[in-house]
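Observation: inputs received (chain + nicotinamide-adenine-dinucleotide).
Thought: call the complex predictor directly.
Action: predict_structure
Action Input:
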Amino acid sequence: MEPEKCCESGCIPCERDPDGKEPIDLCNYIGGEFVCHSGNEWKNVLEPATGHRFARVPLSTPHDVDSAVKAARAAQPAWGALSQSERVGWLDRIADALEARYEDIASLESRDTGKPISLARAVDAHRSVANFRFFADLLREQEQEIFEMPDATNFVVHKPVGIGALITPWNLPLYLLSWKVAPAIGMGNCVVCKPSELTPMTANLLMQVIDDVGLPAGVVNLVHGDGVGAGAPLVANSDIDLVSFTGGTDTGEKVAASAAPSFKKLSLELGGKNASIVFADCEMDSTVAGVVRAGFLNQGQVCLCGSRVLVEDSIYDEFRDRFVDAVEVMRVGDPSDEDTDLGALISSEHIEKVRGYIELAKEEGGSLLTGGLPCVPTGFEHGNWMAPTVIEGLSPDSRCSTEEIFGPVVTLHRFSGEDEAVAIANNTRYGLAGSVWTSDLERGKRVSEALETGMVWVNTWLHRDLRVPFGGVKDSGIGREGGRWSLGFFSEAMNVCVKHD
Ligand code: NAD
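Observation:
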Protein backbone atom coordinates (compact mmCIF):
# COMPACT_ATOMS: atom_id res chain seq x y z
CA MET A 1 0.00 0.00 0.00
CA GLU A 2 1.31 3.46 -0.93
CA PRO A 3 1.76 5.60 2.15
CA GLU A 4 -0.55 8.61 2.15
CA LYS A 5 1.03 11.90 1.23
CA CYS A 6 0.41 14.77 3.61
CA CYS A 7 0.53 17.36 0.85
CA GLU A 8 1.45 17.97 -2.77
CA SER A 9 5.18 18.08 -2.17
CA GLY A 10 5.02 14.59 -0.80
CA CYS A 11 6.06 14.38 2.85
CA ILE A 12 4.90 11.23 4.58
CA PRO A 13 3.77 11.99 8.10
CA CYS A 14 5.45 9.49 10.36
CA GLU A 15 2.30 8.34 12.08
CA ARG A 16 1.10 6.99 8.73
CA ASP A 17 4.28 5.13 7.86
CA PRO A 18 2.83 1.73 6.91
CA ASP A 19 5.36 -0.71 8.31
CA GLY A 20 7.93 1.36 10.13
CA LYS A 21 10.73 0.19 7.84
CA GLU A 22 10.90 2.99 5.30
CA PRO A 23 12.59 6.25 6.22
CA ILE A 24 10.02 8.62 7.60
CA ASP A 25 9.81 12.19 6.36
CA LEU A 26 8.90 14.53 9.16
CA CYS A 27 6.76 17.62 8.70
CA ASN A 28 6.64 20.97 10.38
CA TYR A 29 3.59 21.72 12.53
CA ILE A 30 2.27 25.20 11.84
CA GLY A 31 -1.11 26.69 12.67
CA GLY A 32 -2.52 23.31 13.70
CA GLU A 33 -1.47 21.49 10.51
CA PHE A 34 1.38 19.16 9.63
CA VAL A 35 2.90 20.91 6.62
CA CYS A 36 5.86 20.37 4.32
CA HIS A 37 8.73 22.80 4.47
CA SER A 38 9.18 25.30 1.68
CA GLY A 39 12.64 24.15 0.62
CA ASN A 40 13.78 20.82 -0.73
CA GLU A 41 16.67 20.04 1.58
CA TRP A 42 16.56 17.26 4.12
CA LYS A 43 18.86 15.82 6.75
CA ASN A 44 19.01 12.12 7.52
CA VAL A 45 18.22 11.19 11.10
CA LEU A 46 20.65 8.42 12.00
CA GLU A 47 20.39 6.00 14.88
CA PRO A 48 23.58 6.61 16.86
CA ALA A 49 23.77 2.95 17.88
CA THR A 50 23.68 1.51 14.37
CA GLY A 51 24.32 4.39 11.99
CA HIS A 52 21.10 3.43 10.17
CA ARG A 53 18.86 6.13 8.80
CA PHE A 54 15.43 5.98 10.33
CA ALA A 55 13.94 9.29 9.32
CA ARG A 56 14.55 12.47 7.39
CA VAL A 57 14.13 15.85 8.97
CA PRO A 58 13.24 18.83 6.80
CA LEU A 59 15.79 21.63 6.68
CA SER A 60 13.29 24.42 6.97
CA THR A 61 13.90 27.89 5.64
CA PRO A 62 13.39 31.39 7.04
CA HIS A 63 10.10 31.39 5.09
CA ASP A 64 8.86 28.41 7.17
CA VAL A 65 10.00 30.14 10.35
CA ASP A 66 8.08 33.23 9.34
CA SER A 67 4.90 31.20 8.72
CA ALA A 68 5.20 29.59 12.14
CA VAL A 69 5.74 32.90 13.90
CA LYS A 70 2.72 34.38 12.07
CA ALA A 71 0.57 31.41 13.12
CA ALA A 72 1.66 31.87 16.73
CA ARG A 73 0.97 35.62 16.56
CA ALA A 74 -2.51 35.03 15.15
CA ALA A 75 -3.36 32.55 17.92
CA GLN A 76 -1.95 34.51 20.85
CA PRO A 77 -4.74 37.04 21.60
CA ALA A 78 -7.40 34.34 22.05
CA TRP A 79 -5.04 31.99 23.91
CA GLY A 80 -3.79 34.77 26.18
CA ALA A 81 -7.39 35.77 26.92
CA LEU A 82 -8.33 32.32 28.27
CA SER A 83 -8.53 32.00 32.01
CA GLN A 84 -5.59 30.35 33.69
CA SER A 85 -7.76 27.41 34.69
CA GLU A 86 -8.73 26.87 31.05
CA ARG A 87 -5.09 26.82 30.00
CA VAL A 88 -4.23 24.50 32.88
CA GLY A 89 -6.94 22.15 31.59
CA TRP A 90 -5.05 21.97 28.30
CA LEU A 91 -1.78 21.14 30.11
CA ASP A 92 -3.59 18.31 31.89
CA ARG A 93 -4.93 16.97 28.61
CA ILE A 94 -1.48 17.07 26.99
CA ALA A 95 0.02 15.30 30.02
CA ASP A 96 -2.62 12.56 29.85
CA ALA A 97 -2.12 12.05 26.12
CA LEU A 98 1.67 12.01 26.47
CA GLU A 99 1.42 9.53 29.30
CA ALA A 100 -0.57 7.23 27.05
CA ARG A 101 2.45 7.27 24.70
CA TYR A 102 5.04 6.75 27.41
CA GLU A 103 6.58 3.71 25.79
CA ASP A 104 6.67 5.42 22.37
CA ILE A 105 8.54 8.35 23.91
CA ALA A 106 11.07 6.04 25.54
CA SER A 107 11.61 3.96 22.45
CA LEU A 108 11.92 6.92 20.04
CA GLU A 109 14.25 8.73 22.42
CA SER A 110 16.45 5.68 22.81
CA ARG A 111 16.67 5.16 19.02
CA ASP A 112 17.16 8.85 18.32
CA THR A 113 19.86 9.54 20.91
CA GLY A 114 21.48 6.12 21.43
CA LYS A 115 20.73 6.18 25.16
CA PRO A 116 19.71 3.02 27.05
CA ILE A 117 15.99 2.29 27.00
CA SER A 118 15.92 2.07 30.81
CA LEU A 119 17.22 5.64 31.01
CA ALA A 120 14.87 6.84 28.29
CA ARG A 121 11.96 5.47 30.32
CA ALA A 122 13.03 6.60 33.78
CA VAL A 123 14.30 10.03 32.78
CA ASP A 124 13.05 11.16 29.36
CA ALA A 125 9.55 9.68 29.20
CA HIS A 126 8.93 10.22 32.89
CA ARG A 127 10.03 13.87 32.96
CA SER A 128 8.28 14.81 29.72
CA VAL A 129 4.94 13.86 31.24
CA ALA A 130 5.90 15.20 34.67
CA ASN A 131 6.81 18.61 33.25
CA PHE A 132 3.24 19.18 31.99
CA ARG A 133 1.74 17.86 35.23
CA PHE A 134 4.10 19.89 37.39
CA PHE A 135 3.37 23.21 35.69
CA ALA A 136 -0.36 22.47 35.63
CA ASP A 137 -0.28 21.92 39.40
CA LEU A 138 1.94 24.94 40.02
CA LEU A 139 -0.38 27.21 38.06
CA ARG A 140 -3.40 25.84 39.92
CA GLU A 141 -1.71 26.81 43.19
CA GLN A 142 -0.85 30.36 42.10
CA GLU A 143 -2.30 33.04 44.32
CA GLN A 144 -2.81 36.68 43.53
CA GLU A 145 0.16 38.67 44.88
CA ILE A 146 -1.04 41.71 46.83
CA PHE A 147 1.05 44.37 48.59
CA GLU A 148 -0.92 46.60 50.94
CA MET A 149 0.04 50.21 51.70
CA PRO A 150 -1.72 52.39 54.29
CA ASP A 151 -3.59 54.21 51.53
CA ALA A 152 -3.41 51.85 48.54
CA THR A 153 -3.29 48.23 47.39
CA ASN A 154 -0.85 46.83 44.81
CA PHE A 155 -1.98 43.95 42.63
CA VAL A 156 0.65 42.06 40.63
CA VAL A 157 -0.65 40.84 37.31
CA HIS A 158 1.32 38.29 35.27
CA LYS A 159 0.70 38.89 31.58
CA PRO A 160 1.93 36.73 28.70
CA VAL A 161 5.11 37.97 27.05
CA GLY A 162 3.81 37.13 23.56
CA ILE A 163 5.53 34.77 21.12
CA GLY A 164 8.32 32.50 22.34
CA ALA A 165 11.13 30.81 20.43
CA LEU A 166 11.98 27.54 22.19
CA ILE A 167 15.26 26.02 21.00
CA THR A 168 16.54 22.72 22.37
CA PRO A 169 19.54 20.37 22.08
CA TRP A 170 19.83 16.64 21.39
CA ASN A 171 20.82 15.14 24.72
CA LEU A 172 17.41 15.23 26.46
CA PRO A 173 15.11 16.08 23.58
CA LEU A 174 11.52 15.94 24.84
CA TYR A 175 12.51 16.37 28.48
CA LEU A 176 13.92 19.82 27.69
CA LEU A 177 11.31 20.82 25.12
CA SER A 178 8.40 20.01 27.44
CA TRP A 179 10.20 21.91 30.23
CA LYS A 180 9.79 25.03 28.08
CA VAL A 181 6.47 24.42 26.30
CA ALA A 182 4.45 23.74 29.47
CA PRO A 183 5.22 26.96 31.39
CA ALA A 184 5.30 29.04 28.20
CA ILE A 185 1.79 28.17 27.07
CA GLY A 186 0.58 27.89 30.67
CA MET A 187 1.34 31.61 31.06
CA GLY A 188 -0.56 32.49 27.89
CA ASN A 189 2.22 32.71 25.32
CA CYS A 190 2.20 31.02 21.93
CA VAL A 191 5.40 29.34 20.82
CA VAL A 192 7.53 28.15 17.94
CA CYS A 193 9.68 25.14 18.83
CA LYS A 194 12.96 24.37 17.07
CA PRO A 195 14.25 21.01 18.32
CA SER A 196 17.70 19.67 17.50
CA GLU A 197 17.94 18.43 13.93
CA LEU A 198 19.78 15.37 15.29
CA THR A 199 16.90 14.19 17.48
CA PRO A 200 13.57 15.43 16.09
CA MET A 201 11.39 12.37 16.69
CA THR A 202 9.84 13.06 20.08
CA ALA A 203 9.22 16.72 19.24
CA ASN A 204 7.23 15.34 16.32
CA LEU A 205 5.42 13.02 18.75
CA LEU A 206 4.56 15.98 20.98
CA MET A 207 3.00 17.74 17.97
CA GLN A 208 0.93 14.60 17.25
CA VAL A 209 -0.26 14.62 20.84
CA ILE A 210 -1.05 18.32 20.72
CA ASP A 211 -2.96 17.79 17.49
CA ASP A 212 -4.81 14.79 18.91
CA VAL A 213 -6.00 16.66 22.00
CA GLY A 214 -7.15 19.55 19.79
CA LEU A 215 -5.10 22.37 21.29
CA PRO A 216 -6.18 25.57 19.51
CA ALA A 217 -4.29 25.99 16.24
CA GLY A 218 -1.16 28.12 16.40
CA VAL A 219 -0.59 27.91 20.15
CA VAL A 220 2.30 25.47 19.66
CA ASN A 221 4.15 25.39 16.34
CA LEU A 222 7.23 23.47 15.34
CA VAL A 223 9.82 24.16 12.69
CA HIS A 224 12.41 21.47 12.07
CA GLY A 225 15.84 22.28 10.77
CA ASP A 226 19.35 23.27 11.60
CA GLY A 227 20.76 26.29 13.37
CA VAL A 228 21.57 28.32 10.29
CA GLY A 229 18.36 27.75 8.33
CA ALA A 230 15.81 27.65 11.15
CA GLY A 231 17.33 28.47 14.57
CA ALA A 232 19.03 31.74 13.70
CA PRO A 233 16.12 33.17 11.67
CA LEU A 234 13.75 32.25 14.50
CA VAL A 235 15.78 34.13 17.10
CA ALA A 236 16.19 37.09 14.73
CA ASN A 237 12.50 37.25 13.77
CA SER A 238 11.16 40.67 14.77
CA ASP A 239 7.87 39.16 15.94
CA ILE A 240 9.53 36.93 18.55
CA ASP A 241 9.26 38.39 22.06
CA LEU A 242 11.23 35.85 24.07
CA VAL A 243 13.87 33.23 23.46
CA SER A 244 14.41 30.23 25.69
CA PHE A 245 17.54 28.50 24.46
CA THR A 246 19.27 25.37 25.76
CA GLY A 247 22.45 24.30 24.01
CA GLY A 248 26.15 24.96 23.70
CA THR A 249 27.86 28.09 25.02
CA ASP A 250 29.20 29.10 21.59
CA THR A 251 25.71 28.92 20.10
CA GLY A 252 24.33 30.77 23.12
CA GLU A 253 26.70 33.62 22.36
CA LYS A 254 25.24 33.95 18.85
CA VAL A 255 21.69 33.70 20.17
CA ALA A 256 22.37 36.42 22.74
CA ALA A 257 23.92 38.72 20.13
CA SER A 258 20.97 38.23 17.78
CA ALA A 259 18.31 38.73 20.48
CA ALA A 260 19.90 41.78 22.13
CA PRO A 261 19.18 44.59 19.64
CA SER A 262 15.42 44.08 19.91
CA PHE A 263 15.49 43.48 23.70
CA LYS A 264 13.95 40.03 23.48
CA LYS A 265 13.49 38.38 26.82
CA LEU A 266 16.25 35.80 27.00
CA SER A 267 17.01 32.65 28.95
CA LEU A 268 20.21 30.75 28.13
CA GLU A 269 20.91 27.30 29.56
CA LEU A 270 24.40 26.49 28.29
CA GLY A 271 27.36 24.18 28.76
CA GLY A 272 29.09 23.01 31.92
CA LYS A 273 32.32 21.58 33.29
CA ASN A 274 31.12 20.45 36.65
CA ALA A 275 33.18 19.20 39.58
CA SER A 276 32.34 16.34 41.94
CA ILE A 277 34.30 17.10 45.12
CA VAL A 278 35.05 14.05 47.25
CA PHE A 279 36.24 14.61 50.83
CA ALA A 280 38.07 11.98 52.86
CA ASP A 281 35.13 11.65 55.28
CA CYS A 282 32.65 10.66 52.55
CA GLU A 283 30.70 7.42 52.76
CA MET A 284 32.87 5.56 50.26
CA ASP A 285 30.41 3.06 48.71
CA SER A 286 27.63 5.51 47.98
CA THR A 287 30.10 8.18 46.87
CA VAL A 288 31.78 5.92 44.33
CA ALA A 289 28.37 4.93 42.96
CA GLY A 290 27.11 8.51 42.94
CA VAL A 291 30.21 9.99 41.33
CA VAL A 292 30.27 7.28 38.63
CA ARG A 293 26.62 8.05 37.86
CA ALA A 294 27.37 11.79 37.79
CA GLY A 295 30.25 11.24 35.39
CA PHE A 296 28.70 8.84 32.92
CA LEU A 297 24.90 9.10 32.87
CA ASN A 298 23.70 9.32 29.27
CA GLN A 299 27.30 8.58 28.14
CA GLY A 300 28.42 11.75 29.93
CA GLN A 301 26.17 13.81 27.70
CA VAL A 302 24.26 15.70 30.39
CA CYS A 303 25.12 19.36 30.92
CA LEU A 304 25.22 18.65 34.68
CA CYS A 305 27.60 15.68 34.47
CA GLY A 306 30.49 15.75 36.93
CA SER A 307 33.27 15.40 34.40
CA ARG A 308 35.98 16.51 36.86
CA VAL A 309 36.33 14.47 40.04
CA LEU A 310 38.34 16.19 42.75
CA VAL A 311 39.46 13.78 45.48
CA GLU A 312 41.07 14.64 48.83
CA ASP A 313 44.69 13.55 48.92
CA SER A 314 44.43 11.09 51.81
CA ILE A 315 41.87 8.86 50.04
CA TYR A 316 42.91 9.54 46.45
CA ASP A 317 44.49 6.14 45.71
CA GLU A 318 41.70 4.09 47.26
CA PHE A 319 38.97 6.18 45.65
CA ARG A 320 40.66 6.10 42.24
CA ASP A 321 40.94 2.30 42.28
CA ARG A 322 37.36 1.79 43.36
CA PHE A 323 36.12 4.38 40.88
CA VAL A 324 37.92 2.72 37.97
CA ASP A 325 36.64 -0.72 39.04
CA ALA A 326 33.08 0.61 39.08
CA VAL A 327 33.49 2.22 35.66
CA GLU A 328 34.84 -0.98 34.17
CA VAL A 329 31.82 -3.05 35.18
CA MET A 330 29.37 -0.74 33.42
CA ARG A 331 27.72 -2.52 30.50
CA VAL A 332 28.12 -0.70 27.21
CA GLY A 333 25.85 -2.09 24.54
CA ASP A 334 22.55 -2.34 22.69
CA PRO A 335 20.41 0.59 23.87
CA SER A 336 17.26 -1.52 23.59
CA ASP A 337 18.62 -4.06 26.10
CA GLU A 338 17.17 -3.47 29.55
CA ASP A 339 20.51 -4.28 31.18
CA THR A 340 22.58 -1.76 29.24
CA ASP A 341 24.18 1.02 31.30
CA LEU A 342 25.77 3.05 28.51
CA GLY A 343 24.69 3.38 24.90
CA ALA A 344 26.14 5.17 21.88
CA LEU A 345 27.28 8.76 21.49
CA ILE A 346 25.12 11.07 19.45
CA SER A 347 27.06 11.32 16.17
CA SER A 348 30.26 10.48 14.38
CA GLU A 349 31.24 14.18 14.50
CA HIS A 350 30.75 14.22 18.24
CA ILE A 351 32.77 11.07 18.78
CA GLU A 352 35.60 12.67 16.81
CA LYS A 353 35.49 15.64 19.17
CA VAL A 354 35.59 13.35 22.21
CA ARG A 355 38.46 11.32 20.73
CA GLY A 356 40.29 14.56 20.03
CA TYR A 357 40.11 15.46 23.72
CA ILE A 358 41.43 12.02 24.73
CA GLU A 359 44.42 12.51 22.43
CA LEU A 360 44.88 16.01 23.80
CA ALA A 361 44.80 14.66 27.36
CA LYS A 362 47.76 12.42 26.53
CA GLU A 363 49.66 15.39 25.07
CA GLU A 364 48.81 17.41 28.18
CA GLY A 365 50.43 14.78 30.40
CA GLY A 366 47.40 12.76 31.45
CA SER A 367 47.42 8.97 32.00
CA LEU A 368 44.54 6.84 30.83
CA LEU A 369 43.31 4.63 33.67
CA THR A 370 40.60 2.95 31.62
CA GLY A 371 38.81 3.40 28.29
CA GLY A 372 40.07 5.78 25.66
CA LEU A 373 39.08 3.47 22.84
CA PRO A 374 36.00 2.73 20.84
CA CYS A 375 34.18 -0.29 22.29
CA VAL A 376 31.85 -1.53 19.62
CA PRO A 377 29.23 -4.11 20.61
CA THR A 378 28.80 -6.96 18.14
CA GLY A 379 26.30 -6.05 15.45
CA PHE A 380 26.73 -2.30 15.99
CA GLU A 381 29.81 -1.72 13.85
CA HIS A 382 28.43 1.41 12.20
CA GLY A 383 27.44 3.16 15.44
CA ASN A 384 29.23 5.77 17.55
CA TRP A 385 30.81 3.89 20.43
CA MET A 386 33.30 4.98 23.04
CA ALA A 387 34.37 3.16 26.19
CA PRO A 388 33.92 5.10 29.44
CA THR A 389 37.24 6.79 30.00
CA VAL A 390 39.03 7.92 33.16
CA ILE A 391 42.16 10.08 33.04
CA GLU A 392 44.44 11.20 35.87
CA GLY A 393 47.51 13.36 36.18
CA LEU A 394 46.24 16.39 34.27
CA SER A 395 46.87 19.90 35.53
CA PRO A 396 43.63 21.58 36.64
CA ASP A 397 44.58 24.31 34.15
CA SER A 398 44.81 21.94 31.17
CA ARG A 399 42.31 22.25 28.35
CA CYS A 400 40.88 18.78 29.08
CA SER A 401 40.25 19.82 32.69
CA THR A 402 38.60 23.13 31.87
CA GLU A 403 36.75 22.70 28.55
CA GLU A 404 33.43 20.89 28.10
CA ILE A 405 33.99 17.48 26.45
CA PHE A 406 30.36 16.29 26.82
CA GLY A 407 31.17 12.60 26.51
CA PRO A 408 32.08 9.58 28.66
CA VAL A 409 35.36 11.10 29.84
CA VAL A 410 36.16 11.95 33.46
CA THR A 411 39.37 13.49 34.76
CA LEU A 412 40.59 12.84 38.34
CA HIS A 413 42.43 15.48 40.37
CA ARG A 414 43.93 15.50 43.86
CA PHE A 415 43.34 18.27 46.36
CA SER A 416 44.37 19.07 49.88
CA GLY A 417 41.82 21.00 51.95
CA GLU A 418 38.64 22.90 51.17
CA ASP A 419 40.28 25.98 49.72
CA GLU A 420 42.17 24.05 47.09
CA ALA A 421 39.07 22.02 46.19
CA VAL A 422 37.05 25.19 45.67
CA ALA A 423 39.85 26.85 43.68
CA ILE A 424 40.11 23.90 41.29
CA ALA A 425 36.34 23.59 40.96
CA ASN A 426 36.00 27.28 40.07
CA ASN A 427 38.91 27.19 37.62
CA THR A 428 36.79 27.14 34.46
CA ARG A 429 34.73 29.55 32.35
CA TYR A 430 31.65 27.46 33.16
CA GLY A 431 29.47 27.64 36.26
CA LEU A 432 26.55 25.29 35.93
CA ALA A 433 26.52 22.67 38.69
CA GLY A 434 28.60 20.59 41.05
CA SER A 435 28.42 18.04 43.85
CA VAL A 436 30.11 17.73 47.24
CA TRP A 437 30.56 14.37 48.96
CA THR A 438 31.22 14.49 52.72
CA SER A 439 29.73 13.25 55.98
CA ASP A 440 30.16 16.75 57.45
CA LEU A 441 27.00 18.48 56.25
CA GLU A 442 28.16 21.88 57.52
CA ARG A 443 31.19 21.56 55.31
CA GLY A 444 28.95 20.36 52.49
CA LYS A 445 26.96 23.60 52.69
CA ARG A 446 30.04 25.79 53.19
CA VAL A 447 31.86 24.38 50.18
CA SER A 448 28.69 24.46 48.07
CA GLU A 449 28.21 28.16 48.74
CA ALA A 450 31.81 28.87 47.72
CA LEU A 451 31.31 27.28 44.31
CA GLU A 452 30.68 29.60 41.36
CA THR A 453 27.74 27.60 39.97
CA GLY A 454 23.97 27.80 39.83
CA MET A 455 23.33 24.42 41.46
CA VAL A 456 25.14 22.10 43.87
CA TRP A 457 24.15 18.75 45.30
CA VAL A 458 25.55 17.41 48.59
CA ASN A 459 25.93 13.60 48.77
CA THR A 460 23.76 13.18 45.68
CA TRP A 461 23.59 14.31 42.07
CA LEU A 462 20.75 15.19 39.72
CA HIS A 463 18.26 14.85 42.55
CA ARG A 464 15.67 17.15 40.97
CA ASP A 465 12.89 19.06 42.63
CA LEU A 466 11.09 20.89 39.82
CA ARG A 467 10.23 23.81 42.12
CA VAL A 468 13.84 24.96 42.52
CA PRO A 469 15.79 27.40 40.32
CA PHE A 470 17.74 25.75 37.52
CA GLY A 471 20.49 27.51 35.57
CA GLY A 472 24.10 28.55 35.51
CA VAL A 473 26.47 31.44 36.09
CA LYS A 474 29.54 32.60 34.12
CA ASP A 475 29.52 31.07 30.63
CA SER A 476 26.88 28.48 31.60
CA GLY A 477 24.02 30.84 30.97
CA ILE A 478 21.74 33.65 31.91
CA GLY A 479 18.57 33.38 33.95
CA ARG A 480 16.82 30.60 35.78
CA GLU A 481 14.11 28.18 34.79
CA GLY A 482 12.15 25.84 37.06
CA GLY A 483 9.11 26.38 39.28
CA ARG A 484 8.19 30.02 39.80
CA TRP A 485 11.34 31.11 37.96
CA SER A 486 9.92 29.61 34.76
CA LEU A 487 6.56 31.27 35.37
CA GLY A 488 8.38 34.58 35.90
CA PHE A 489 10.44 34.21 32.74
CA PHE A 490 7.45 33.30 30.61
CA SER A 491 5.41 36.28 31.81
CA GLU A 492 5.62 40.02 32.32
CA ALA A 493 4.85 41.10 35.86
CA MET A 494 2.75 44.26 35.93
CA ASN A 495 1.86 46.16 39.06
CA VAL A 496 -1.49 47.86 39.44
CA CYS A 497 -1.59 50.28 42.40
CA VAL A 498 -5.10 51.24 43.48
CA LYS A 499 -5.40 54.27 45.81
CA HIS A 500 -8.03 53.86 48.51
CA ASP A 501 -10.77 56.44 49.04
P1 NAD B 1 23.97 23.34 20.01
O1 NAD B 1 24.22 24.68 20.62
O2 NAD B 1 24.82 22.90 18.90
O3 NAD B 1 22.46 23.26 19.46
C1 NAD B 1 21.34 23.51 20.29
C2 NAD B 1 20.18 23.96 19.44
O4 NAD B 1 20.49 25.21 18.86
C3 NAD B 1 19.87 23.03 18.26
O5 NAD B 1 18.47 22.97 18.10
C4 NAD B 1 20.52 23.74 17.09
O6 NAD B 1 19.96 23.44 15.84
C5 NAD B 1 20.27 25.19 17.46
N1 NAD B 1 21.17 26.17 16.85
C6 NAD B 1 22.42 25.97 16.35
N2 NAD B 1 22.92 27.15 15.91
C7 NAD B 1 21.99 28.10 16.15
C8 NAD B 1 21.92 29.51 15.94
N3 NAD B 1 22.94 30.18 15.40
N4 NAD B 1 20.83 30.16 16.35
C9 NAD B 1 19.80 29.51 16.92
N5 NAD B 1 19.78 28.17 17.13
C10 NAD B 1 20.88 27.48 16.76
O7 NAD B 1 24.00 22.32 21.22
P2 NAD B 1 23.90 20.74 21.15
O8 NAD B 1 25.17 20.19 20.61
O9 NAD B 1 22.60 20.37 20.52
O10 NAD B 1 23.77 20.37 22.71
C11 NAD B 1 24.86 20.16 23.55
C12 NAD B 1 25.12 21.38 24.40
O11 NAD B 1 23.95 21.74 25.12
C13 NAD B 1 26.18 21.13 25.46
O12 NAD B 1 27.04 22.24 25.52
C14 NAD B 1 25.38 21.01 26.75
O13 NAD B 1 26.09 21.34 27.91
C15 NAD B 1 24.27 21.97 26.48
N6 NAD B 1 23.12 21.70 27.33
C16 NAD B 1 22.85 22.56 28.34
C17 NAD B 1 21.78 22.31 29.20
C18 NAD B 1 21.47 23.23 30.35
O14 NAD B 1 20.39 23.11 30.90
N7 NAD B 1 22.35 24.13 30.72
C19 NAD B 1 21.00 21.17 29.00
C20 NAD B 1 21.30 20.32 27.95
C21 NAD B 1 22.36 20.59 27.11
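Thought: report the result.
Final Answer: Residues 275-466 form a domain with the Aldehyde Dehydrogenase; Chain A, domain 2 fold (CATH 3.40.309.10). Residues 117-141 form the longest helix (25 residues).
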